[in-house]
Specification:
Blueprint lengths: L2 E6 L3 H11 L5 E7 L2 H8 L6 E5 L7 H11 L4 E6 L4 H10 L3 E4 L5 H9 L6 E2 L29 H11 L4 H8 L3 H15 L4 H21 L1
Parallel strand pairs: 1-2, 1-3, 3-4, 4-5, 5-6
Helix pairs in contact: 2-3, 3-4, 4-8, 6-7, 6-8, 6-9, 7-8
Length: 222
């Protein structure tokens, strides 16, 4: 049975190139195309889809938000993000929204075809130019017999969020202090929770306090 794929990008030229690539695979069927998120959501109401190749930067509604809304309507659809760039925060945001892979538009080739057939939330696929987030490596930071530790690897912005959470700052103030989009604070918070296998905001706040204390102790010792 063919894999039914939707192509979502506001640039017709790229959609044409992507369609030509996918049509080389006899087991892939181009079921739909859309130029923005609203078009895709309307299509998803009436059209059966298996995979959506989703541009992140769409007009009106981002590919991140479109992915989140699409999966609330069609949880079984697999979304693979596409972007002209490979900024880590976009990759993390797409995974947080429910995507199962990420490619730059420049490296969307044979590996993308494989991802369309095989990518899942448990086994995400990434292009050669995409930095794979720690949480996507398949090894949880904690398990049934482990507790979160300061050995977990965090990005610079994640560390900033943890430090300010430990001081009791709410998300809007953290965003102002770090000079980043307020919506990204929730993304960083969820990424940290995923890395640590934490299940509640209270657990995250407690971890932030312990993490910050451990960093302060290490600084004092040096």
């Amino acid at each position: 049975m063919s894999v039914r794929v939707a192509l979502v990008d506001d640039h017709q030229t790229f959609r044409d190139r992507l369609r030509a690539l996918l049509q080389r695979d006899p087991d892939i069927e181009i079921a739909a195309e859309a130029g923005n998120g609203h078009e895709l959501l309307a299509i998803a109401l009436t059209t059966s889809l298996d995979v959506v190749c989703m541009d992140i930067r769409l007009p009106g509604m981002s590919g991140i938000e479109t992915t989140r809304r699409l999966l609330s309507l069609r949880p079984r659809v697999r979304v693979i993000g596409l972007s002209a760039y490979a900024e880590p925060h976009y990759v993390e945001a797409m995974l947080d929204a429910g995507a199962v892979g990420q490619f730059t538009k420049g490296d969307a080739g044979e590996a993308l075809l494989e991802a369309i057939h095989r990518a899942t939330a448990a086994r995400p696929f990434f292009g050669a130019n995409v930095a794979v987030p720690v949480a996507a490596n398949g090894t949880p930071a904690t398990g049934p017999d482990r507790t979160p530790s300061n050995e977990t690897s965090f990005g610079r912005k994640e560390e900033g969020v943890l430090r300010l959470m430990a001081k009791g700052l709410p998300s809007p103030q953290i965003a102002t202090f770090l000079a980043i989009d307020p919506t990204m604070i929730d993304v960083y918070r969820r990424n940290i929770m995923r890395k640590l296998n934490l299940r509640s905001d209270d657990a995250l706040v407690e971890y932030a306090r312990q993490w910050s204390l451990g960093r302060d102790d290490a600084s004092d010792a040096s």
